[in-house]
Amino acid sequence: MTRKKIDLSVDFCGVKFNNPFLLSSSPVSNSAEMVANAFEAGWSGVAFKTLNSDRVRIVHPSPRMNPYHYGSKRLVGLQNVEQISDRPLKDNLLDFLYLKKNYPDRVIISSIMGFSNEEWAYLAKASEDNGADMLELNFSCPHMTVEGSGHKVGQANHLIEKFTETVKRAVSIPVLAKMTPNITDMTEPALYAKQGGADGIAAINTVRGISQIGLDDWTARPKVAGIGAISGTSGPAVKPIGLRFIADLAKCEQLGLPLSGQGGIETWIDALEYLLLGSTTLQVTTGIIHYGYRIVEDLIEGLSDYMAERNIERVADLVGKALPTLQETDKFDLDRQGTAHYDVERCVGCGQCLVVCNDSAGQALEWDAEKRRPRLIEDKCLSCMVCSFVCPVTDLITYKEQPKNWQRQETEVMGKDLEGQLKLEVCK
Ligand SMILES: Cc1cc2nc3c(=O)[nH]c(=O)nc-3n(C[C@H](O)[C@H](O)[C@H](O)COP(=O)(O)O)c2cc1C
C-alpha cells in the first residue's frame, strides 16, 4: 500500500518549518556537524545550544548528567547540571553560517543568554547577522553556576520584560521567550515577555528535581567531586508538567502567542498531545539522547498516518483541539457517575483486580473460588478504575456510565456502636 504523503509544514511566528519537529537547545544541538546529521534525518529546525558572549567563562561540571531509571524502565528521565555553551561565540556563529548555506530550507533558532542588558543585545544582533532565523531567550536554565542567571531571571518578571525589549530593539527576526517550569503560574512571566515584545513562547525547560541519591555515599546524582545539587530533570517523567504549562499558556486569551512545546516528547503520540494542547512546533532533547536523531522518522510517520486516517490535511488543524474540553474541575457534572464493567469471559484469573480493589478502592469485588474469577458488586464500585490499571488483559475492564443520578452504596462505618465516644468540638 502506498502511503499518502502528508504535508506536515507549519507556520510559526511567520517562519515556515517543513514539519513541527525541532532539536531543542542542549547537547543534541551543540555543533553544525551534529545539527547537519539531524537535518539529514528529517528535523526541520534547531534551537541551537544556548550561546554565551565569551565574557563569562563557562565550564561544565563533571559528570554533568545522570540517568533516572525506574525499575526495569530505563531513562524515564534525565538529570543534568550542564551549563550553556562552552564554545567560543565565533565558532557557534560560523556554524550558523555553515548550516544556513548548506540547509537553506531548515530553520535556525539561536538560543541566547546574556549576563547584562548589553550582552543580550549583542548576542541577538550577532545571531541575526550570521543567519539565525529566530531567537530563543533562555530565561530558564535551572542550575547555572553563574549567580542570578537562567531561571532566576525567568522568575523576575521585570527582567524578562526588560531583556525581551532590549533584544526586540536589536533585531527584526522573531523572538521566543523560553520559560521556566519552576514556578506556579507561567502565564504571568509569559505576559511580561509579551509586554517586552516576544513573538512566541517556548516551554518547558527542565524541572528542578532530584532523581537519585547514592545509597552508600548519601549524595544526590550527578555527583560532582563529592557534591550533589538540585538540578534539571527532563524526559518522559516531566511530560505531564510540560503539557500542563502549555495548556495554561494556550488557554490564556490575553497572551495569544504561538507556542513551542517540549518536555518528554519521545513518540508521535507525545508530540500529538502537545499539538492538541496548543503547541505549533515541538522540541526534543532527552528522546534524542535515548534513541538518536532517527526518532524523527517515527515522529513524522506516526503523525502522518494519524492525520491520513482522519483526513486531517494540516498540522494547524490539530493545534489546540483538546482545549475546549479542558476545564476547571468545578465544571464536572457530578450527577453523572459510572462503574467498572468486566468482560469476565476473557479473565485469566490472576486476581490482581481483587487485591487493588480491597487495598485501595471500594472492596467491590468478590472472588468466585470455583471459577477463579472476580464478581463485581456494582453499587459498591467507586469507578476509580484502578482494577483496569493492573489487569493484564487489554480492555477486559472498561468504564460504564450509569444513568443520571444513579447512586452507589455508602461506605460501611465500622465504629457505629462507638458513636457516644465521638469528640467533635467546634473551633471558635
Ligand atoms: C543535558 C541538557 C542540556 C540542556 N541545555 C540547555 C541549554 O543550553 N539551553 C536551553 O534552553 N535548554 C537546555 N536544556 C533543556 C532542553 O532544551 C529541554 O527544554 C528540556 O530538556 C525538556 O525537553 P526534553 O524532555 O525533550 O529533554 C538542556 C537539557 C539537557 C538534558
CATH topology of the largest domain: TIM Barrel
The average pLDDT is: 96
Can you identify the CATH superfamily of the largest domain? Aldolase class I
Please mark out the parts with pLDDT under 50 across 5 or more consecutive residues, or reply none.
none
- Global shape: globular
Helix count equals 11
Q: What's the domain count?
A: 2
| Shape-level CATH architecture of the largest domain | Alpha-Beta Barrel
| Radius of gyration, CA atoms, in whole angstroms | 26 Å
**How many β-strands, per DSSP?**
18
Question: What's the main sheet like?
Answer: 8 strands, parallel, barrel
**Binned strand content:** 15-25%
Share of residues in helices: 25-40%
Strand order of the largest sheet: 3-4-7-8-9-10-13-14
Which class best fits the helix and strand makeup? alpha/beta
Features:
428 residues; alpha/beta; TIM Barrel; Alpha-Beta Plaits; four-stranded antiparallel sheet; 11 helices; globular; binds flavin mononucleotide
In short:
With 428 residues, the protein is of the alpha/beta class. The chain is 27% helix and 20% strand. It has helices at residues 32-41, 89-102, 117-129, 157-170, 187-195, 239-251, 268-276, 286-291, 295-309, 352-360, 386-390, and strands at 10-12, 15-17, 21-23, 45-51, 65-70, 73-80, 107-112, 134-138, 175-178, 200-203, 207-209, 231-234, 259-262, 279-284, 338-342, 365-368, 373-376, 397-401.
Task: Chart the SSEs and their pairings.
Elements: E1 10-12, E2 15-17, E3 21-23, H1 32-41, E4 45-51, E5 65-70, E6 73-80, H2 89-102, E7 107-112, H3 117-129, E8 134-138, H4 157-170, E9 175-178, H5 187-195, E10 200-203, E11 207-209, E12 231-234, H6 239-251, E13 259-262, H7 268-276, E14 279-284, H8 286-291, H9 295-309, E15 338-342, H10 352-360, E16 365-368, E17 373-376, H11 386-390, E18 397-401
Parallel strand pairs: 3-4, 3-14, 4-7, 7-8, 8-9, 9-10, 10-13, 13-14
Antiparallel strand pairs: 1-2, 5-6, 6-12, 11-12, 15-18, 16-17
The protein binds flavin mononucleotide.
